Structure formats: C-alpha cells, structure tokens
Amino acid sequence: MISIEQLEKNLSEKLILKNGLSSLIRNSDLFNGSADALQVIGVSDLTLNSVQISRPVDYSVTVSGTAQIIDVSQSLSIKVQIQQNGSITQEWTFSPTLPNWNFKNCFSNLPNCTGVSNNGISLIERDSFFYELVFNHPTFIIKRQDKGEDIYCLTFQGSLTPSSQNVFGQTIKAIVGSKALTVIGQIDLSGQIPIISLSAPLPQLRISLSKFSLENFSLLFKTKNTNLPGSEMGLSGSIHFAAVQTEISTPLLQGNFVWPLLVNFEDNALSLKNGFQDLESLLGIDIRGITFPKGLEALGAFYFSSVTLGFDPKKTSLSFITVVGKTDLS
Which residues form the domain of 322? Predict the structure, then answer.
C-alpha cells in the first residue's frame, strides 16, 4: 500500500513545472485513472497553470491550478485519496473563472427549443433556453460513479435565480417565485451534442385539490439527441390517491400555461373492477351514470394505463381530463 507521503512525492515529480508555473497532464502520466477522467471532457492531456500541491487531510493530496477546460478558463482542483483497501480515488472539481458564465460559453452546439415568442403570442423555435439561464457558482465535477466500476461521469451543479428578463426565466419564476434553486445533474459529452440532464428539487411546491395532492416536484432541464434533437424544460412530481402512488410529469414552454400532467400507472395497478372508485376519488367526478353492455363482466381484465390532467397553475384548477385504458384480453 502506497503511503500518503509517497503519493505526494510521486505527484510532485510527475508534475514537472515549466518556469515554476505550469505543468502538462498527459494522458495517464499523473496517476492511474487520470486518462479516464480526461476522456470524460474529451481530451487526452491538459495544461495546468499556477500549480500547487497540498495535503489538507490525512490520506489525500490536492493538486490545484487553472486550466482551459471545455473552451473556457477554469479553476481546477484534483483530490487524490488513498482508500482503506489501498486503492486510489480521484475527484476533479472545476469552476469557470468567467464572470456571468452561461452554458453557451462551454456548449455552443446545444439543440434549439420550442418556446413562446417574446410578445407571448405564438410558439416558435428558439435558441436553447440553457443560453438564457445564468447560474451562480457553476461547478463541474468528474468522479467515479457509485457502481463499483471504473466509470467516470461529469456532474454539473449551480444556483439558479429566476429572472424576468426572458420568457424562460419568467416560466420558472411563475412556478417558484424569486427563490434561488439548486440545480444538479449529469452531462455526457461523448456524442455529437452534449446530453444534459439536470434537475432542481422544489420541496416547497405542493398543489392541493379537493380529492388529491401533487408534491415532490422537480424542475427538469435536459437535451435530447433523437430524430428531433431539442432542449426541453419540464416538471416532474408525484401524486397519491386511494391506494395508488405514482409519478407525474409535464412539459413546460408550451405557451398555453396549462400543465398537461401525465399520470402513468404501473402495469395493472388500476383495473375497471375497482378503478372507477379510485378514479372518482382522484378526479372528483360522479361515476354513477356509467353503464356497461351485457356480457362485459370481466372488468378485471381492463385497466387504466394513464390519466392526463390539464392543470391551470394560475387558477389551481383542472381544465381538462383525458383517460387512457388498456386490456390484457387476447
């Protein structure tokens, strides 16, 4: 097992300083696993400036400096730690030094999104909404995934304060007010476009109607690279009624300010045999007028697969309801 003193010495020897200021981290020259970390940001080597090596706590060494990462100057800290089993782990943390940084500084090829025009009249194709969201304290982290494998991922986190200066900020502000949001998630740079999947928990947001409540909300910010690449903003949460608890989701930026909350039920969770009573509890409707043709006794073979609730957040009421059913009869 390597000692922490030997690890610090090895790092000092490998980080050969140029003019006492910079050092080239080339592929896996630094330590085992550094090549995998560099691959996450799409490079094989990195020039680190203003290098410093410190040992802040037992069994770890920190290499810090500045470097050009994902097209911008960033302050970088690499924490190398010896675990109890003798293995060496690493965590790379870097933050843009550019004031008022936004995603366009690092990711200029994000796909467009559909959004409301500035005059609020129509839906149009616009540049990605990511470019109009300004984050405080944006931070990127490269570390091994918690899967027992040497697979590294890129995580982003930052604080987002909703702004009224653009329609995207107005959408967020209408939901959460002016409170700053903690946004965190992963970014995959291995494809043609960055695949971003971020979320911001909204623990204070809870919607109560007469028969049920919606809670555990999160704002979602993501890009997709399908047949129609795009940037999407959405809202997810959960709904609990009767004996069923399930997830809900809705796209935002659709222009009509009605959230089509999609409630997907697990396979065969609600059959018509008892599901109408549960559905009545959920929707607050009277089902006594529903009748079935003779011979249709096998209601247990028919199920609700989803319900879409058209929720108007301004009026806190439902504007429409759509029910989708299915059967396992052949």
Answer: 257-327
